[in-house]
Specification:
2 copies of one chain form a homodimer.
Chain A: E1 9-13, H1 15-25, H2 27-43, E2 54-57, E3 62-69, E4 73-81, E5 95-101, E6 107-112, H3 114-132, E7 139-143, H4 149-160, E8 164-168, H5 172-182, E9 188-191, H6 195-199, E10 204-207, E11 214-218, E12 228-231, E13 240-242, H7 244-249, E14 251-254, H8 257-263, E15 276-277, H9 278-283, E16 296-299, H10 304-317, E17 325-328, H11 339-345
Parallel strand pairs in A: 1-6, 7-8, 7-10, 8-9, 10-12, 11-13, 12-16, 14-15, 14-16
Antiparallel strand pairs in A: 1-17, 2-3, 3-4, 4-5, 5-6
Chain lengths: 347, 347
C-alpha cells in the first residue's frame, strides 16, 4: 500500500504544544505578534467573508462555530461557554480551531484554542486599547480576575504600555491567584476590595466576568470622563455587565455590529443606536478617540476574524519547530475515486 | 504537575482507525447499523436543533459546517466539496466531525469523516429506499461510478435486498473500477455503455455525479413508471442532475426542505412546489409510496442529523476497542480559573 500524501496529514497543535510554543516565543512577544496580526487583518476587513457565529444554546451554556475566510484561507473555531463548568472543575470556555486551503478544502492546521483564545482575546483588547485609549494610559482596572485576567493585563502592558493593574473580583481568592500569577511581570499589581477602589486612577477599565445573566458590574456613577472601557464579559444574549446609562455616555466601538447587537452590551440599546466599527477606525474611514474627556467603549464579543488571525500566527510560528504532530485526518486513496478500494485493501 | 483529567483528552478516530473499525464490524453490518441509527433519529426528528449548513463558497468549491444537537449531544461536521480536486490526485470530498456533551460543551469524540461520510450517505440512501422503493426491488442502476458508488451498491444490497447493480459512468475507467471493487460482493454487476442501458429493468435509479453545474444526467424519457429515484449528486446551488420534467412526474421526498430548496434538485422548481419530509413518512405522519406505478424521488443533499447518527454509531462502536487515540485537545488546569498558571508552570 502506498503511503498517503503529505496533504492527508494535518499539523495538530495540542495543548502541550501550545504551551511549549508560548514559552519558545515568550508570552508577551506572542501577545504582541497576535495583536499586530489582528490589526493587519482588521485593516483588510472587507476581504473577509463574515457571518454571525452559529450558536447552539442550552439552559447551561452555548456551543458556537465561528467561520470566516479571506478567499485564500478558510478558518473556523469551535468554542463553548458554560459558566457552571468551574464548579465541576472544568473550564468555562474550551475551544479548538482549524485553517484550510480554500482552493482544495483540505485542512492545513488543527489546533487547540482554549489557550489560544485567551491569547487572542487579550491581544484583541490590547489592539483596540492601542487605537482607542487615552494617550499615555498607565493604569488599568481589571474587574473579574478569572482565567482571562492575567492575559489581559500582560497584553495591555506589552501593547499599550500600562504600568499598573488594579485587581477586583467578588471572590478574593481569584484576586489572590491573579496577583500571584502577575508577580514578576514588571506590572505594579494592586489587589482591591471593591470595584470602586480598583477603578481609582485607571485610564482603562476592563470588565471580564462570567455570569450568564444581566449583571451590573459597573454602575453609571463609577465611570468618570476620559477613560477607555474594555467590556469583554457581555458576550451572549442575556449576558451584559454595564449599566445602560454608561452606554449612553460613551462612544461605542464594535467588531461586527450584526453579532454585537445580539450578544454585546448594546443588546440593552435600541437596534439603531450609533456604533462605530473598529476596522473603520483602523483604516481611517471613521474617527476613534477625539477628545481627552471622551469615554470610549470597546464592546467586545469576539469575532471569527480574530481567531483566524491567531490561527495564522500559529501556523507560521510552528514552521521549522517540533510543536505539532501530523494527524491522520484525511483519507487519501492513490486514486481519489477509489475510496472503497482503499478501505477494502486496509483489511 | 498534576495530570490533566480524562475529559481533557478527546477520543480521536483517525482514517486508519476508521478502516480498522470497518473491517472489525464488517462493512455491510456497519452500513446496516448506521442506516438503522439514522432511521431511529429521523423518528425523533423534532427533538433536534436544525439549521441549514453554513457554507463558504468559492469559484472552485465549497466548505461547509453542519451542526445539530438533540439537547444531550451536540455534533457537527466539516466537509468540503471540490470537483476539481481529483485532477490533482485529491479527494472531491473530505470531512471530519465531532460530538460533544451539551451539559459541559466538552468534546467527547473527534473523528475522520471522509470515509464515514461515504458510509452515512450510502446508509441514508438505503434507509430512504427501504421506506420508498417499490416492494421487492432487486435491480439498481448506479449512474456515476465515483467514490460513492460501491458504498451505495452494498448498502442497497444489505438494507433493501437488491441483487443486481447496473453501472454507468461517462468515464469507462470509473465503471471498471467499481465493477472490480464489487466483484465478490454477491451482487450481479453489469457494466453498461449508456445510462439508458443501465436503467433497463431497474426499480431503483441512483444518480451520483460530481460536476458543479446544472447537468442532465437523466432526461424525462429515460424514466418510466414504478421506480424510485435516489438523487445524490445535486447537492449545492447550481448543481443538479435531473431534467425538471422528471421532478414534475415524481413525488418528492426530502430531508430538510429549507436546505433542499437551495441545494437539491428542487432548486429547479417553484419554492412552493409540494415536497414531503422523509421523517414524516418514518413516523407515519405522511404517506410514502402509495402505488406501484408511482415515481418516488429522494432528493438527497445530506443533512447534519445523518452525520450525527453516524458519529453516535462510531462513538458506541469504538468502546472497548483500540480504534482511537486520546487527543490532547483541551486545556485542563487544576484550578479552572488558573489557565495562566498552567501555561506558566509548563515553562
Amino acid at each position: 500500500m502506498t503511503q498517503p500524501s503529505e496533504k492527508a496529514f494535518v499539523p495538530f497543535v495540542s495543548v502541550d504544544h501550545m504551551m511549549q510554543l508560548i514559552h519558545h516565543v515568550g508570552l508577551k512577544p506572542m501577545l504582541r505578534g497576535i495583536a499586530d496580526r489582528i490589526e493587519a487583518d482588521f485593516h483588510r476587513w472587507p476581504d473577509f467573508d463574515k457571518t454571525p457565529r452559529v450558536a447552539s444554546h442550552s439552559d447551561v451554556g452555548v456551543i458556537e462555530l465561528m467561520p470566516t475566510s479571506d478567499g485564500d484561507v478558510y478558518g473556523f473555531k469551535y468554542v463553548n461557554g458554560h459558566p457552571g463548568n468551574t464548579k465541576g472543575g472544568l473550564q468555562t470556555v474550551t475551544a479548538f480551531g482549524l485553517l484550510s486551503d480554500v482552493a482544495t478544502g483540505y485542512p492545513v492546521l488543527f489546533s487547540e484554542m482554549t489557550i489560544l483564545t485567551a491569547l487572542r482575546t487579550a491581544a484583541t483588547s490590547a489592539f483596540a486599547a492601542r487605537v482607542l485609549a487615552p494617550a499615555g494610559s498607565k493604569v488599568m482596572a481589571m474587574i473579574g480576575n478569572g482565567a482571562q485576567s492575567e492575559f489581559q493585563s500582560l497584553a495591555m502592558q506589552e501593547v499599550v504600555g500600562i504600568e499598573e493593574v488594579r485587581l477586583y473580583d467578588i471572590d478574593p481568592a481569584a484576586t489572590e491567584k491573579a496577583a500571584r500569577n502577575l508577580a514578576g511581570s514588571g506590572l505594579r499589581v494592586v489587589p482591591c476590595k471593591t470595584a470602586e477602589e480598583a477603578i481609582e486612577g485607571a485610564q482603562i477599565i476592563t470588565t471580564c466576568t462570567a455570569d450568564k445573566q444581566y449583571a451590573t458590574i459597573l454602575t453609571d456613577n463609577m465611570v468618570g470622563a476620559g477613560v477607555h472601557l474594555n467590556a469583554i464579559g457581555g458576550d451572549c444574549p442575556g449576558k451584559t455587565e454595564l449599566a445602560p446609562a454608561i452606554l449612553h455616555r460613551a462612544d461605542i466601538f464594535v467588531e461586527y455590529p450584526e453579532q454585537t447587537r445580539i450578544e454585546g452590551e448594546i443588546q440593552q440599546l435600541d437596534p439603531d443606536h450609533k456604533v462605530t466599527e473598529l476596522w473603520e477606525v483602523v483604516t481611517g474611514a471613521a474617527k476613534g478617540r477625539t477628545s481627552e474627556r471622551q469615554i470610549t467603549l470597546f464592546d467586545s464579543v469576539g469575532f471569527a476574524i480574530e481567531d483566524f488571525s491567531a490561527l495564522c500566527y500559529v501556523r507560521d510560528a510552528i514552521r521549522g519547530t517540533d510543536y505539532f504532530t501530523p494527524l491522520d485526518m484525511l483519507a487519501d486513496p492513490d486514486d481519489p475515486r477509489d475510496l472503497f478500494g482503499m478501505v477494502q485493501r486496509a483489511g
